[in-house]
Fold this protein.
Amino acid sequence: MFKKIIHIVLWLIAIAIIAVSFGFSVKESNKLVCLEVKVDVMDSSKVRFIINNDIKNWVRLYHREIYGHQISPGNIRKIEEGIQKLQAVEDVSVFANFYNNGVKNSQVLVVRIKQREPVFRVMSSGRTYYVDRFGKYINWSAYFTPRVMIVGGNFSAKYAAERLLPLVEYINKDSFWSSQIDQIYVNSNGELSMIPRVGDQLIYFGVPEAYQIKFRNLKALYSEGFKSGGWSRYSSINAKFLNQIVCTKKQ
């Protein structure tokens, strides 16, 4: 019984210490004066739409008042909300850094960013932009040209997000098709043509519906019908219909 009481007392003391420490930390954070902004783009080795200095310049332009002043929760919230609206930003967190390599009150405001990752590139109606996994678009950037599927033609951003995104994600997740399909073109009727990496024939795919069945039929043709390289004899492959594939020989 005595040991149980001691155990409870120790727990209460530990909780009290944590509460006091937390209260002290909050109090100290309210006194922290911002002298520097540090930007951490977490996925910069893979995606490079965002440059650290651009975010620092954005903070200087729109929130110059934080420099040399105490960092408040209101300042942090406004900066987070502003950066979150930037097209290439998927997620952002902003916080005051108490310690830097063990040194207290380093007076740094940290902006930590996760970028949007492009799934494919759109080249339509004189515009070029990228679409991410959420269907959000990212403007073309001179900083970074990712190696992703290119889709050309004349179609809306809504068509790209709702009709093309599921199909391109299907291609990207399939080891065979991700290495085979190089580009996609959308005509005025919303029908797709695909350019393969192997061979010079054009694949007429039709509208982006029932694409799992169409790709299954095409894979059977490539793995069985073209296993000896017979694709070089054809100028086009028509996979619009679910029950047949029509190949047109070169003239």
